[in-house]
Design a protein that fits this description.
single chain; about 70 residues; mainly alpha; 434 Repressor (Amino-terminal Domain); two-stranded antiparallel ribbon; 5 helices
Length: about 70
């Protein structure tokens, strides 16, 4: 399961969920679900979030090593 750091980056930029949602053109609830790990955003949405937060994808969304597929080990 992907781990994300969206909430931390959003708070660092002093943005509310609504402000970030407005910037990336989604509902505030979508941002809340992403931050809670209950929504798997599209790549396009991930890119918009990263751009709005001044980050690249890696610091925001990455796979934990413990959750890699067995064939990748």
């Amino acid at each position: 399961m992907p781990v994300n750091r969206v909430k931390l980056a959003r708070v660092e930029r002093n943005l509310s969920q609504q402000e970030l949602a407005d910037q990336v053109e989604v509902a505030r609830q979508t941002i809340g679900l992403i931050e809670a790990g209950n929504y798997n955003p599209t790549l396009a949405l991930c890119l918009r979030i990263a751009k709005a937060l001044g980050k690249t994808l890696d610091p925001l969304f990455y796979l934990e090593e413990d959750h890699e597929r067995p064939e990748a080990q």
